[in-house]
Design brief:
- By secondary structure, the protein is α+β, with helices and mostly antiparallel strands.
- It has a single domain (3-29, 41-216), classed as Peptide methionine sulphoxide reductase MsrA (Peptide Methionine Sulfoxide Reductase, Chain A, 2-Layer Sandwich), CATH 3.30.1060.10.
- It contains 7 helices and 8 strands.
- It has helices spanning 3-23, 53-60, 83-86, 108-119, 145-161, 188-191, 196-212; strands spanning 44-50, 66-74, 94-101, 127-128, 131-132, 138-142, 171-174, 178-180.
- The strands form 2 sheets. It has a 6-stranded mixed β-sheet, covered by helices on one side. Strands 4-5 form a two-stranded antiparallel ribbon.
- A hairpin with a 2-residue loop joins β4 and β5.
- α2 (53-60) crosses α4 (108-119) and α4 crosses α7 (196-212).
């Protein structure tokens, strides 16, 4: 790529990113009316999909009570759980994040509040900002009936608030398996904070988290290796 094309490409990327930010602004939303009580116990997990997993992982790495946030794939088979296959949009997988959390510190409903408020735009169907395809869909993969109940009730509650630009299109699907993404996808924002995609699309989500839900935010990101 020569200099003029590189310059033009950079300008287009900036404009593309500015559009993406406008499409994925944070939204002030109430806490869920239906939630599980916080109680000491074994770590629990939530699996969520909301576009490129780099940004979703980065947001939850800054959440109080989260012990680990791991990028990966959910919705398809183990055999196709690798980046090049998932990127085709034909595997059934969505780029997802598995969140391991302390149920005595944070509730499942609070996890979903951050998911809907700052981690992504739940009104975008099979896309998220600049990324297109079913692998970038908005989805909650529930592990049990309680998670399903909380998720479906919260979506109905949020749709009634009128806070979003359109109806929430987030799918609520049973979790049949979560498969870790490749090592180079883990802690991507932490490792590449000056990457242009990260600067335009994902760092603003972390800043919005700190600004809009400070009671759930922590400054230091938890790395994926912490709980291993």
């Amino acid at each position: 790529m020569n200099g003029s094309k590189r310059f033009l490409g950079g300008i287009l990327l900036i404009l593309w990113g500015a559009w993406a930010l406008a499409a994925e602004r944070s939204v002030a939303i109430p806490p869920p009316a239906v939630d599980n009580p916080k109680a000491a116990g074994a770590p629990q997990t939530a699996v969520l999909a909301g576009g490129c997993f780099w940004g979703v992982q980065a947001v939850f790495q800054h959440m109080n009570g989260v012990q680990r946030a791991m990028s990966g794939y959910a919705g398809g088979d183990r055999a196709t759980a690798e980046y090049e296959s998932v990127s085709s949009g034909r595997t059934g997988h969505a780029e997802s994040v598995q969140i391991t959390f302390d149920p005595g510190v944070v509730s499942y409903g609070e996890i979903l509040r951050v998911f809907f408020a700052v981690a992504h735009d739940p009104t975008q169907l099979n896309r998220q900002g600049p990324d297109r395809g079913t692998q970038y869909r908005s989805a909650i993969f529930y592990a049990n009936e309680q998670q399903k109940e909380i998720a479906t009730a919260y979506i109905a509650q949020l749709d009634k608030t009128g806070r979003f630009r359109g109806p929430i299109v987030t799918r609520v699907d049973a979790l049949h398996g979560f498969y870790d993404a490749e090592d180079y996808h883990q802690d991507y924002l932490v490792k590449h904070p000056t990457d242009l995609y990260i600067v335009i699309n994902d760092l603003p989500k972390v800043r919005d988290f700190e600004r809009t839900l400070p009671e759930l935010y922590r400054a230091k990101a938890v790395p994926t290796k912490l709980a291993q």
